Every structure is written in C-alpha cells, then in structure tokens.
Amino acid sequence: MAFGINRVELSQWKAAVNRGEIAYLTHYWIDPRFPKFNTVTKVGCADVNRLSEWCIAHELPSKYIHHRDSYPHFDLLGPKQREILLQEKLWHQLERFGMM
Asked: Which superkingdom heads the taxonomic lineage of this protein's source (predicted)?
C-alpha cells in the first residue's frame, strides 16, 4: 500500500517515465514482506534498455524490473535506496521521507 504522495507528483513521475527519462518517486509503503522498510523509491523509465543499464550501473539486478502497466520500474529499498538518492542529489525526497 502506497501513501504520502499526491496525484500531481504521480502524474509528473508518469510523464517523465513516458518521455524515457530515469524518474524517481519515493513514497511511504507498507508491505508485510518487508517489515523493516517503510519507504520505497520507484525508479521508472519507459525505455527498458535504459532502465536495465541504470540497474547495471548501480549494481542492481535488472531481472527485478517490474514490467507492469505502462510504467516499467525498479523498486529501491533500504540502504541502497538512501545511497542512490544521495548520489542523485534528490535532497527533497531524502528529507521528506526521513532518510537524511
């Protein structure tokens, strides 16, 4: 279950994904499979080859790209999530979701 984002943020992320950009969307998240984590960052890109290259560059297994709907994405969790948000200088997402 996702929460902590609004329709405008989601629409902006979807538009960036559709343009073939690497787009980041962090939100609160509850999933019993991952009880230690309360946020997830969805890294999306409609160009799946580009998204796969992004995964490889960040030492992440591209086999975990979600090919659902029209918005292919990779879910970042835990320490790797924070590490990549820091690398990408996504300060607002880090601050907003308590990862600073």
From this structure: Bacteria
For the stretch 38-76, pLDDT in tens is 999 999 999 999 999 999 999 999 999 999 778 999 999
Domain ranges of the chain: 2-96
Burial (Cβ within 10 Å: 0-12, 13-18, ≥19) of residue 15? exposed
Residue pair 39/29 in contact (Cβ under 8 Å)? The answer is yes
Helix/strand/coil percent split, the chain, to 5: 40, 20, 40
Which residues does 87 contact at the CB level (< 8 Å), separation at least 6? none
pTM flag (> 0.85): yes
